[in-house]
Amino acid sequence: MVQKYGGTSVANADRIRNVAECIAATHSSGCEVVVVVSAMGHTTDDLLHLAREVSDNDHPRELDMLLTAGERVAMALCAMALRDLGVPAVSLTGSQAGILTTAAHGAAEIVGIRSSRVRESLSEGRVVIVAGFQGVDPDSKEVTTLGRGGSDATAVALAADLEADECEIYTDVDGVFTADPRVVPNARKIDEITYEEMLELATGGARVLMPRAVEFGRRYSIPIHVRSSFHGRPGTLVKEDTMEEPIVRGVAHDTSEAKITIHAVPDNPGVAAAIFEPLAEAGVNVDMIVQNVSHDGVTDISFTVPNRQIDLARHVSNDAADDVGALRVDVDDNIAKVSLVGAGMKTESGVAAKMFRVLSSHNINIEMLSTSLIRISCVVRGEEVESAVRGLHEAFAVGSDQETVR
Amino acid sequence: MVQKYGGTSVANADRIRNVAECIAATHSSGCEVVVVVSAMGHTTDDLLHLAREVSDNDHPRELDMLLTAGERVAMALCAMALRDLGVPAVSLTGSQAGILTTAAHGAAEIVGIRSSRVRESLSEGRVVIVAGFQGVDPDSKEVTTLGRGGSDATAVALAADLEADECEIYTDVDGVFTADPRVVPNARKIDEITYEEMLELATGGARVLMPRAVEFGRRYSIPIHVRSSFHGRPGTLVKEDTMEEPIVRGVAHDTSEAKITIHAVPDNPGVAAAIFEPLAEAGVNVDMIVQNVSHDGVTDISFTVPNRQIDLARHVSNDAADDVGALRVDVDDNIAKVSLVGAGMKTESGVAAKMFRVLSSHNINIEMLSTSLIRISCVVRGEEVESAVRGLHEAFAVGSDQETVR
Which residues contact A376 (CB under 8 A, 6 or more apart)? Predict the structure, then answer.
């Protein structure tokens, strides 16, 4: 059994002792337990703040060295609390636990697990506490971090390597909801959800689980149980198949992106590559891309990028626009994305049409649109997104028994 | 050149940037520079406090894991600040820098240095920032710490291994003083002092340099320059020989010890071993030991131990007293030790006699007494120690040109 506890669950000494009691209960039931912990509470933000106080520049290698101190503190304290309960426990850094990653500081990807030290400690009857979010590049021996939410990926990857029955992700909410409960007060907890749906919800803005962790779960068929660390009730089980396949499983929204539009791009072959290749090389995470039919040999290309990369994206886009002879670049940071996700969409028609009707009935204009097999995402004005989420959640009766597409 | 910066010197972002400027100046003069840093300000105490909040018990392995997060933060921030100044810099943990230690968590000793990674970075023109106070046990691969002040030992050991010309210890005072300036306002900074004298002053209570660091310096003949990180004036140079050999180089005092007396110990062979072996096995650091001539076949044995080990020492002493058939054990935590240190004592007689006369003229009773070739230490009442230090400093004219033993 692999359990992961987030920063809120280990935010102070009391909570760490609570977490230790949960772990001890699992251990006493005869289970082998590996625990992945995040840094305590706001530690990572505090360390980032400290780094900004010292330096305005990017130092990815040293930033990773700095941030990995956070989980180190949390894991050592958890191990102490467990030992106080009579449970033999040992903490291991990402490097010690054999979490091998790419060399990309701040956004490394797990490429393998060398879990001999974890397995050895387990075979000695110990609970192993592993620092989440961090790993080591096996070539350079440099310490790396996986990016925000990376502890989820650490947990699921370890569960896959250790062939665990399940990976439990303990968090400060009850599970995955049909919409953000802060926006939709009657949003419901989802009992079961497929990997694909969870992936679409997570990339659509649901913050409860990191997309890469879901991908690991899917690739290695590890059920992921997202549940509360404050009570024992079941949360949301992410797995291959679910009992029911509703048309809309949930409504996600995301206000962390900005829209860039390049106007009057000559409609020649190779133009899209000339724009998006430099963006990829600069490390800009482009999400949605929309290009309309051309008029008079020119077209407009719009795409969304994370708000935090807006300056970088603007700079690269301006250069690219000059290169291809486009008219100008506009940046709009007052947008939001709202997504409907559900495996039932694969076989159900009319979902998009109903979505557009609902948005229009709320006087909400759709600025960009993209779809996948099981998702429809619309970009709307930032101030309209909450009304869009509430309207869609109600119109599609998400999470209720009488779902309808009519 | 190896430079060590203590916690006060890197206590916040501003000071870290100041330290970076000092290092950059040394680097731009063409010197290869290795920098050893302690944790920022009160970080280590804060982490210890956190550990006590979580657990009342001892978890040495996990405590080391916890505490080593402190230097990790400081070294990463220092490397960032240096890179901002255009100086190529890289930070390394104790383990990455090859600081090999014994397995004794919390009090590990450096047993070797495997400095290939440090040398490699130096040869690439980088400044190497090394986490002080920490190392790794090469057998178990476990992370260890060297105990309080261990960063000094890290610095001098690295200087020895790298065959550096000098090891600079930057601190928040101007150097080593003839007495604690908070007690003796006209105490003077010592320009040069021998390793032996520094060792005696450090074990006598001068906190500015860790005894083990001085031992390393002596063993490998590395001059140690103790100096201020707030200005560029020279501090105190600790080395083999000094220009002058005064009778009293300095007066040290220590209020961190307690006295234990075992009364009416049968004066048989093996009794001392029966008392001090269990204390050593329990890890109690016994400092002074005094045993007087016996009367009626019994004698009293007194010794001093660190205040923080008082409960442990009392417990072990009670058992030992029972075993040897002694009368009872008294513990007195209101004592202090005052020491005169000077290489000139080797050849000068009458120093002890004058010391006793000075103390008696201040109505101060001597409770215990021990001497080495270059030191005389007296245990006195705790409340009398400051007056003892002032009286001795004045009577021996310590640090002035007209020193006298008359």
Answer: A339, A340, A345, A351, A352, A355, A369, A370
Give the whole-angstrom CA distance, residue B116 versus residue B102.
20
Neighbours of A90 (CB within 10 A): 24
Please give the DSSP secondary-structure letter assigned to residue B214.
H
Q: Residue A239 pairs with which residues in a beta bridge?
A: A194
Q: How far apart are CA A356 and CA A210, in angstroms?
A: 29
φ/ψ of residue A385, rounded to 5: -70, -40
ipTM value of the model?
0.74
Sequence length of chain B is: 406
Q: What residues form DSSP beta bridges with A34? A: A2, A128
Residue boundaries of the structural domains of chain A? 2-172, 243-406
Distance CA B89, CA A30 (A): 48
Contact B150, B215 (CB under 8 A): no
Q: What angle do CA B55, A75, A97 make, to 5 degrees?
A: 140
Among B16, B54, B84, beta carbon nearest to A80: B54
CA–CA distance, A402 with B205 (Å, rounded to integer): 79
CATH annotation of B2-172: 3.40.1160.10
Interchain contact B69–A (C-beta under 8 A): yes
| pLDDT tens digit at each of 406 positions of chain B | 999 999 999 999 999 999 999 999 999 999 999 999 999 999 999 999 999 999 999 999 999 999 999 999 999 999 999 999 999 999 999 999 999 999 999 989 999 999 999 999 999 999 999 999 999 999 999 999 997 779 999 999 999 999 999 999 999 899 999 999 999 999 999 999 999 999 999 888 888 898 889 988 999 999 999 999 888 899 999 999 888 788 899 999 999 999 999 999 988 877 888 888 898 888 888 888 887 777 788 888 889 999 999 999 999 999 999 999 999 999 999 999 999 999 888 777 788 888 888 998 999 988 888 888 888 999 999 999 999 999 999 999 888 765 444 4
pTM of this structure: 0.80
Residues of B in contact with A66 (CB under 8 A): 72-73, 76-77, 80
- Higher pLDDT: B272 or A12? It is A12
- One DSSP character per residue, A273-320 reads HHHHHHHHHTT-----EEEPPPBTTEEEEEEEEEGGGHHHHHHHHHHH
Residue B136 CB-density burial (10 A; 0-12 exposed, 13-18 middle, 19+ buried): buried
Question: What is the CB neighbour count within 10 angstroms for residue B323?
Answer: 12
A233 touches chain B (CB under 8 A): no
pLDDT at A401: 62
Pick A79's closest partner by Cβ from B12, B62, B141: B62
C-alpha distances in Å from residue B195, one per residue of A23, B57, B232: 52, 38, 23
In CATH terms, the fold of domain A243-406 is VC0802-like (3.30.2130)
Distance CA(B256)–CA(B204), nearest Å, equals 11
Q: Among B400, B388, B399, which Cα is nearest to B193's? A: B399
Give the model's pLDDT for residue A406: 43
Closest Cβ opposite residue B72 in set A54, A69, A76:
A69
B177 to A197, B7, B151, B183, B393: CA distances (angstroms): 70, 20, 21, 11, 11
Half-sphere exposure of A202 (CA within 13 A, CB side): 20
Interface of B with A in 188-227 (CB under 8 A): none
Q: Rounded to a whole number, what is the distance in Å from the CA of B59 to chain A's nearest CA?
A: 6
Alpha helices by DSSP H, B291-350 = 310-324
What pLDDT score was predicted for residue B401? 62
Q: Measured between CB atoms, does B81 come within 8 Å of chain A?
A: yes
Residues 6 or more apart whose Cβ sits within 8 Å of residue B201 = B176, B193, B249, B250, B252, B339, B341
- pLDDT (tens digit per residue) in A181-200: 999 999 999 999 999 999 99
Supply the pLDDT for residue A404.
Answer: 47
